[in-house]
Structures are given as structure tokens and as C-alpha cells.
Amino acid sequence: RLFIAIPIPHEGKEKILKMIEALQEFSFRWTKAENLHLTLKFIGNWPVSRLSNLMELLENAGKDIPPFKIEFSHISAIPDWSRMRILSLEGKPAPPLTKLVENLENLLLSLGVEKEKREFRPHITLGRISKKKPITDISRLREKAEKTFQFLSFLVKNIILYESQLTPKGPIYTSLKKFPLDGSH
What we know:
By secondary structure, this protein is of the alpha+beta class. The protein has helices at residues 10-22, 51-58, 95-109, 138-148, and strands at 2-7, 28-30, 37-44, 68-78, 86-91, 123-129, 152-156, 158-167, 170-180.
């Protein structure tokens, strides 16, 4: 199972972990520090025999995109607060980010990966709802999330192809290859 994502720099992870720490009273399955990322495209199962084709193609994904800054504006819920499955840090859409996602969608389509039907929503998953312990007081969570939020921005210089292995203790993400954006070699 593969996906392409923007890695979160160390300082960004520290800020995010402080936000997660402040919201510990709510029973989410929280994202571990090493798993924090911003997904650009979920590919899914991919044959090992076609991995080199994929990597070759991804070399071109960021060729026409210089490094850019991404900002995160607030903590939110996906799909929304009333049907929340995920608590996330919402990123502001930036033209270079939109272009990068378009590039990935078009390049991957040439390898038979379907385009995403939903509109791209840049976010970092903080935690997922625990089916065993649903969150009952959503308004309190929203209030606490607003107070907890810390402004976050960082420079995106590359994207990474990750492998995702699902285990009973949660997913394990392995970085397979880093692809620089134009000018960040």
C-alpha cells in the first residue's frame, strides 16, 4: 500500500504533538510523531514489479514547482463536526500545492491510478475516532481545539513516496524515496 505525502519538519511535529497533548482527554486514536504527514495522493496496493516505473514518473512531479510555504489555519473535523471521523490540522490551499496535486493526479493516471473524485483538502491527521469510545461532547472538543491551536507554517521542499503497513498496533509508514521540488536539490 503506497501513498505520496509531504513530510512534516521536526519543529512542526513538536508543535503538533503539543496540540495533541492538550487534547488527550478526548479518546481518539492519536497519530504518532513518526507518522505525521500531509497526504497528497493515496495510491493503494501497488505491484513491486511496477515500483521503478512509479518512481521514475514521480521524479517529474515537482519539476515545475519551486519550494513553497504551507500554512495551517485551524483544527477541524473530517468530513465535518457532526459526522467526525478524523480530527485534523487544516492547511490553507496554496497555488503551488494545488499544482503539485494536479501533477501527481495526471502522472499517476498515466499508470492507471484513478483520479481522486473529492476535492483535495490539505490536512494533517491528528487522530481518528475510536469506535469503542465515541466523542459525546463535540462542542467542548471544538472549544478546546480552538484554544489549543497553534499557528503552524513550514517550507515544503520535497515529497515522499511512503509504504503503509497495517498492523494491530497501528500503521507503520516507511519512506521509500524522496523527490525534491524544483530548485531544492
